[in-house]
Amino acid sequence: METDHRFPGCDGLITNQSNVTLGIYVADCGAVYIVDPVRRAIGLVHSGKKGTEQGVAGQAIELMRERFGSVASDLVVQLGPCIRPPHYEIDFAAQILRQCRALGVKEVHDAGTCTACEPARYYSYRAEKGRTGRMLALLAMTSEAPRREQLLYQTALTEPQQRYSSRSPACR
């Protein structure tokens, strides 16, 4: 089995294979983690302004239904850190959450963290004016059945560099 597959230009990945790690890079866009603990399938989606307008998270949920028999009410969805108002004119985080709930997802969670508000912890393309690294969002499913309390997300920083500590007064 090959251990590295890349899908340039792809905003989302799904699998029902155990011991496969999905990964996407984000800076201000949201990483949307989708887990089906019943049918044992996962999805990871990169959703920013354009992807949210196109309903990319919903498309992943629909594809999981078609390919793996996933039922929206069984899914657990987690939105990772992303840019939010007032640092960005569109609250795509809220739109993603609404889209998932409209599809019937009952368990939808939001980290509630703005990447532009915490430059010491997260990369923000907008706050750092394009001179930044990327965060690597990862999601994997082990060969044993996950318990709900194990459905956590992890965001790892990549391309380490000197971090700024300037904090916008608009941030919490």
Q: Identify the CATH architecture.
A: 4-Layer Sandwich
The fraction of residues in strands falls at 15-25%
Sketch the major β-sheet. Answer: 5 strands, mixed
Spans of at least 5 consecutive residues whose pLDDT stays below 50 are: 148-169
Number of DSSP helical runs: 3
| CATH C-level category | Alpha Beta
What do you see in this structure?
It is a single chain. This protein is α+β, with helices and mostly antiparallel strands. It has one domain: CNF1/YfiH-like putative cysteine hydrolases (4-Layer Sandwich), CATH 3.60.140. The chain is 17% helix and 24% strand. The protein has 3 helices and 8 strands. The strands form 2 sheets. The protein has a 5-stranded mixed β-sheet. A 3-stranded antiparallel β-sheet has the order 2-7-8, with no helix packed on it. About 13% of the residues have low confidence.
